[in-house]
Every structure is written in structure tokens, then in C-alpha cells.
Design brief:
Structural class: alpha/beta
CATH topology of the largest domain: Quinone Oxidoreductase, Chain A, domain 1
Helix content: 10-25%
Bound molecules: zinc ion
CATH superfamily of the largest domain: Medium-chain alcohol dehydrogenases, catalytic domain
Order of helices and strands: EEEHEEEEHHEHEHEHEHEEHEHE
Strand content: 15-25%
CATH architecture of the largest domain: Alpha-Beta Complex
Length: 338
């Protein structure tokens, strides 16, 4: 099968590799769509992916073959590439220690991910795509689960006004999850015009441009003075961490869902006196995936302007698309059609 194989820092080669062999409790999924995630781009950009591995974890497809002990899934089932509940007896690679992080240890080793024609998965791992949810929406299931997890683990409560810094895929999905969760208003800050427009299309109540206005001042104004109860940093840009801490009210929370791979600016005196809180959210749990899919089937999450005709690329554009995503992005989501 064809796959985009990591061959050094910032280098992918399209190669023919063996189609994965199935274990008795595994299914073979023919990948239909596989989105390029910011974290794939980081691993590519900073050389954090092992030689010979295949990146890609935001994919959907169809079950085309099942192992002999598979009971739950069958051929032609439409699935997303994760979200299932791990059985108690599952044997999984364990994180090396408590200090595990993407930066210090790296993400999984030499696995074959979703930038390939097929992927073999343990039967428990994928979730079925609900009827009525399009492939173009379902391909957002993994980032949607990240957004749900961020909101669920934050201090956000129904009726709150919240800020989302950054309107990349995670920011846009977080904004929609907040709306679905009963936010009074969601304010989005985003400098790239195409992304700001997506935020508007998808229902942001206010979209600020941090290059043209003082976003902290504006958020204070919009909140009537004290700041907002919770802000989400979905940008990992140099100034957003500081902005988020500055714009939350006394005792408020900055929920960090993005990963900054470079230093960010902080000046504690601007917010320490309000005893604000910073919390991180990382990854997602099965309930977050399921909730994301539920919101999709209730049409409370949309892929409009996130996944468009221009999103789709072929093998020949993999390398250039990864390179392009290293720079400030105009495209909201890029999706490989293997
Ligand atoms: Zn991702």
C-alpha cells in the first residue's frame, strides 16, 4: 500500500509499504480521509517522528476485513480512527514515566498511522460514525474530541461568556462546543483573515483581530469590566498565553489546549494579583469522542468552511502541504485522500 513515510526532519517520502497483517481481534480499515493535524506538522517540523513511521491520526474509513475473533465490527462499517473504550485486558504500550511529554519523550514510536491507504486497528479502538453524519464532518471527530475534552475539563459553565484565542481547527471546534454547551457569548481572537471568517461563519459572536486591536482591552470592555470567567488558548502563539491570563476575571481560568513548541512571553505582574488559574488539557477520553459525535449528529458541530473542496489533497501534495502548514495558515483544514 501507499504511505507517506517519515524520512528525516521535514521530509516525507511516498513509498510502497506492506499492507498491515491483521491480528485475530483486529480490523483493517481502508482510509477515506486523513486530516493533517497541527501536531503532525510539529513532529514533522521539529524532527520528533521516528524514521520509518507514518504520521496521521485524524482519519475515517471503512472496515474492509476483520480478524477471526472480531465480534462487534463488520465489513463496510464506517468508522472514525479512535474513541473506543479500552478493554481491561488490552495490552498497550505504557508511557515511560510520569513525566511523559511529547517534547521530552516523543509521541508513539514506529507506528503506521493514517497517512496510508490502510490501517490495522484493535477492534475496540474505532467508533462507528452515526448515520446522517457526513464523511466531511466525521473527519473532524478527533479534533472535536480534543475540543470537548478542553471544555469539559475547564471551569466553563452554561451561561458564561468565553474567549477562544486562535481559530485553527481546535479553536473553531472549541468555539462550537462552547456554543452547544450554552455559552452566553463566545469571543474569538484570530489574525488570519480566512480563519477569522470561518469563526464568523460557524457562529462566533465577536471576532477580534489581535493585529489591529488590543484584544485584552476589547474583552474587558465586552465583559463590562472584570474580564471573562474562562479563556481557551488554542493558538500556541507567542502572545496568546499572556493575553489569556490577562483577560480572565479574578479567579478565572485560562485553559491551554494548544502546545507551544517555542518560548512564549509571560509577565506575571499583569495577572497574578487576580489569582487566576492556568490549566492544561491534553488528548481526550472515550466520552469526549462520543460527545463530539453526538454533537455532530445533532448538527451542533459543523465543518462548514473548515473542510471545503480546497481541503482535499493527493499524495503528491503531502510534502508541500506539511511545509505550508508550518507557516501561518490560510487553509483551515487539509485532508489527504489516499
Ligand atoms: Zn490531532
Amino acid at each position: 500500500m501507499k504511505a507517506a513515510v517519515v524520512r528525516g526532519t521535514q521530509k516525507l517520502e511516498i513509498e510502497d509499504i506492506p499492507t498491515p497483517e491483521l491480528g485475530p481481534k483486529q480490523v483493517l480499515v481502508k482510509i477515506k480521509y486523513s486530516a493533517l493535524c497541527g501536531s503532525d506538522v510539529h513532529r514533522f517540523q521539529y524532527g520528533m517522528a521516528n524514521e520509518g513511521s507514518v504520521l496521521g491520526h485524524e482519519y475515517i474509513g471503512e472496515v474492509v476485513q476483520i480478524g477471526r475473533d472480531v465480534t462487534y465490527l463488520k465489513e463496510s462499517d464506517r468508522v472514525v480512527g479512535g474513541g473506543g473504550t479500552q478493554p481491561e485486558d488490552a495490552v498497550l504500550p505504557k508511557y515511560p514515566n510520569d513525566r511523559y511529554s511529547a517534547r521530552t519523550v516523543g509521541i508513539e514510536s514506529t507506528r503506521i498511522g493514517g497517512f496510508a491507504e490502510y490501517v490495522a486497528m484493535d477492534e475496540w479502538r474505532p467508533l462507528l460514525i452515526p448515520e446522517g453524519v457526513s464523511d466531511e464532518l466525521a473527519v473532524l471527530a478527533e479534533p472535536a474530541s480534543i475540543a470537548v475534552h478542553a471544555v469539559r475539563t475547564s471551569k466553563f459553565k452554561i451561561g458564561d461568556t468565553a474567549v477562544v484565542l486562535g481559530a485553527g481547527p481546535i479553536g473553531l471546534l472549541t468555539m462550537q462546543v462552547l456554543k452547544a454547551g450554552g455559552a452566553a457569548r463566545v469571543i474569538v481572537s484570530e489574525p488570519a483573515p480566512a480563519r477569522a471568517e470561518s469563526a464568523r461563519v460557524l457562529g462566533a459572536d465577536v471576532v477580534l483581530n489581535p493585529l489591529k486591536e488590543d484584544v485584552v482591552e476589547r474583552v474587558l470592555e465586552l465583559s463590562g469590566g472584570p474580564g471573562v470567567p474562562v479563556a481557551f488558548d488554542a493558538a500556541a502563539a507567542k502572545p496568546t498565553f499572556q493575553q489569556g491570563l490577562q483577560m480572565v476575571r479574578r479567579g478565572g481560568q485560562l485553559l491551554v489546549v494548544s502546545m507551544a513548541w517555542e518560548d512564549v512571553d509571560l509577565r506575571t505582574v499583569d495577572w497574578i494579583g487576580r489569582e487566576v488559574e492556568m490549566k492544561a488539557a491534553y488528548g481526550s477520553q472515550p466520552i469526549d469522542w462520543q460527545t463530539g459525535l453526538n454533537l455532530m449528529s445533532r448538527r451542533q458541530l459543523s465543518s462548514e468552511s473548515m473542510v471545503t473542496d480546497e481541503s482535499f489533497i493527493g499524495w503528491d501534495q503531502m510534502q508541500s502541504s506539511m511545509e505550508r502548514l508550518m507557516k501561518p495558515e490560510e487553509h483551515v483544514q487539509i485532508v489527504l485522500v489516499p
